[in-house]
Amino acid sequence: MDITLFLALLSFAFVASVTPGPNNLMLLASGANFGLRRTLPHMFGVSLGHSFMVFVVGLGLATLFQTIPVLRRVMLVVSVLYMLWLAWKIAHAAPPRAGQAEGRPFTFLQAAAFQWVNPKAWIMAIGAQTTYAQGAGWTAAALVGMGFLAVNLPAITLWAWLGTEVRRLLSDQRRLVVFNWTMALLLVASLLPILFH
After folding, report:
1. CA–CA distance from 98 to each of 40, 83, 104, 165, 171 (Å)?
2. Which of the chain's ends, N or C, has fewer CB atoms near its CB within 10 Å?
3. pLDDT tens digits for 17-31?
4. In the chain, at which residue ranges do the beta strands (DSSP E only) sit?
5. Which of 52, 48, 59 is nearest to 129 (CA)?
6. CB 149 within 8 A of CB 10
7. How many angstroms separate the CA atoms of 139 and 58, rounded?
8. Lowest-pLDDT range, 96-110, 122-136, 141-155?
9. Do 155 and 83 form a contact (C-beta atoms < 8 A)?
């Protein structure tokens, strides 16, 4: 891959990673509810999990979905149901007691596994591989995956950090409830472009 194409990939990966979507909205909520330090495993799970997914998609998983279209529909239904459940969990998150949020943030493995049911992650992975991978094979797939790995963590860190800044405003229980419901509704709204694409 030449340097111009790689820079274009980095630009695409950064914009795709920093724009609102399920991962970023959940990281914002996690930063607000648990703080940046407790959200770190979630952040690393998103970044490494999605980069690995991009690599695997480049190895041919996208071809499988094109060959067997019903798999894509099944995956979409499972993804939507799972994200609706997550929105419900966010909306009903318990208010903090004595400075600590109840519950636990996503673990590294939970966040990495979430990439496989995140419709935006699939669109980003397939779009990146079909647009920026020059040729087939593991080298092209790996370069696109590494492009995402290089810019994803800094992009998503902005959302988790913003959540920690919002946390100060959420010391009032009513504000926290409004925030959690707003995050849940935004998560559901993030599904609409994917469902009607």
Report:
1. 22, 30, 15, 18, 10
2. C
3. 988 888 999 999 999
4. none
5. 59
6. no
7. 9
8. 96-110
9. no
Would the pLDDT of 136 be above 80? Answer: no
Q: What is residue 55's predicted lDDT score, i.e. its pLDDT?
A: 95
Structure tokens at 164: 């920690």
Q: Which residue has the tokens 């499988």?
A: 64
Determine the Cα–Cα distance for residues 45 and 26; give it in Å rounded to an integer.
12
Query: For the stretch 25-34, what's the b/e string if a residue is b when 16 or more beta carbons lie within 10 angstroms of its beta carbon?
Result: bbbbbbbbbb
Which pair of tokens denotes residue 176?
């926290």
Secondary structure letter of residue 136 according to DSSP? S
27 near 158, Cβ under 8 Å? no
User: Given the structure tokens 């009903």, which residue do they identify?
Assistant: 92
Spell out a b/e string for 129-146, using b for 16 or more CB atoms within 10 Å of the CB, else e: beebbeeeeeebbbbbbb
Tokens at 53, concatenated: 């997914």
> For residues 71 and 68, what is the distance between their CA atoms, to the nearest angstrom?
6
Lowest mean pLDDT among 98-107, 115-124, 160-169: 98-107
